[in-house]
Amino acid sequence: MNARGYLVWLVLALLAACQRQMLGQRAVWVDVPLDGAHAPPGTAVVVGAYASAPGGVQMNLYVNGSQSAALTVEQVSQGLFYGQGTWQPPGAGRYLISVEALTAEGGRMMSDAVALTVDAQPAPQVSPSPQPPLDDMSLRAERTTLAAGECTTLRWKVNIPNPQSIDLNGSPVPPEGSQEICPCSNMQYDLIVFANGEKYARSVAVQVSGSCVATPIPPQPTGAVEFWADSTQIAAGACTTLRWKVTNASRVFLMGKEVAAEGQQQVCLCASETYTLGAALTDGSKQERSVRVSVSGSCVTPQPEFVATTPAPPPTITSQPPPPPAPQPLKPGSTDAANPQQLADCSGVVLRWTPVDSPLGIQGYRVGLLRNNNGQWESVPPYDLLPDPSAAVGQYLTAGWGYRWNVWAVDGSGRNGDLSPWMYFECPLP
Question: Can you give the residue range of the structural domain that contains 281?
Fold first, then answer.
């Protein structure tokens, strides 16, 4: 099959997959290899197939009518699944490849068979032509078959008017651009656009043979940061003591003011307050801990029990408004710590959240960004007060690490607001 024929087949296959999914049909069809394809001798053959069925499926590979192996299945979208595996031909010849799909309802579907010829001598290599862009949006890779460690370039273009967001594998991207990728395993790249209340998607799969040898990242020495309050729940007007102890620290800050590495401070409150202790460690890393002291009641001077001969004007009670509410984090990340969002590239990550308001006004926002080092969360920049509900943090992220972040507002009086929930994500190895 020539390059033009392959492109026509690919477009028709994508349209057919979308139509089956929209109609809710149950079907299974082989995606790769193509019918009539040739394979060089002595190499493993990648087999991929789509299945359309609600509730999930199991997929098995059949060669010449006999079951060969189970395929690894992942969900592509609602009701659409993709199975993939490899098969090692025993020798040169012509083979019929089909895929069985077992539905969650107990049903069984069998795809049409595709013919694959394993050549006696290696077939000449033909570089596929780039996929032409569609009218509304396009995503293509200059090469879709790589050896582990090789690189290619993704290119995309979005012509949809007024898009609310454009993301490539979870990271925001401009309407038109390119990105070099060097995957170490089979990858699917998804371009997702939200516009006018609708979701639009384009995908491209890159098949990778072999594996990359990852260079282990040596663990960084860390210091210990302990920060607590004698009591975190007090009545209005009562006091409690904040205490801290930090080891291997070059500088320590309590609410932005430098303090000793070990110490204590008494605080007496009329309203709930969150206190933050930050430490710059001797190994160059930063950590941060927060303690919230909740206050019940209010600081109101009681009325005298006697009746004055001359009525006095009622006292003016000045009540302080509550601290700012917690902003709502938008992206990136998942609130499920056990299932962090897997980002394709962390170099351009921007944290985003909803703005909040306060009767005293909002000075800005503070972000807590922590890195998972063997189960211990280490704080990393930024510590600055941010005027807008976003923070570009790509320069602080390292490939191969997991992260979590949250955010809180600071009102006009300098008080910290409620903390948002944590968002979890991971950065891939290059």
Answer: 236-296+322-426
